[in-house]
Design a protein that fits this description.
The protein is an alpha+beta fold. It is built from 2 helices and 7 strands, in the order βββββαββα. The strands form 2 sheets. A 5-stranded antiparallel β-sheet has the order 1-2-3-4-5. Helix 1 runs antiparallel to helix 2.
């Protein structure tokens, strides 16, 4: 697997744990649209989507997921499919996503898939308590 500092490889195993600068990351989602990983030490999430890459604290992640879901499900008043009319605030000061309805759906799906993956891995850990 190629180092995330220099770029992302074409294929990533969904259950991969990899190291960047002496930190272990758990891959929760990877697609052509971006990725979501979680640091196993500090438990912060890193979300890359479109041209923005942000770090989200563990306690802020559920509220961010809920916010994206709410904004995505709101009535789409776009004049066209290309209208970037959905503004989603992030937990990072001064950073927000400005998305089309289709892009908001993609982000929402990424976050939901990452959440399901994290829950699945947590359940698997219950059956394998001897992991490092």
């Amino acid at each position: 697997m190629q180092d995330l500092v220099t770029g992302i490889s074409q294929q990533v195993c969904i259950h991969t744990i990899f190291k960047i600068m002496n930190r272990e990351f758990q891959s929760l989602h990877y697609s052509n649209d971006g990725y979501i990983v979680k640091c196993k030490q500090c438990r912060h999430y890193q979300l890359a989507f479109m041209c923005l890459c942000i770090t989200i604290h563990e306690e802020d992640f559920p509220a961010f997921r809920t916010s994206v879901a709410k904004k995505t499900m709101e009535h789409n008043t776009a004049l066209s499919d290309q209208c970037k009319c959905i503004m989603i605030k992030t937990p990072v000061a001064g950073a927000c996503f400005l998305l089309t309805h289709f892009e908001a759906i993609k982000l929402h799906n990424m976050l939901e898939e990452a959440d399901v993956e994290e829950q699945t891995l947590s359940m698997l850990d219950l059956f394998n308590p001897c992991q490092e």
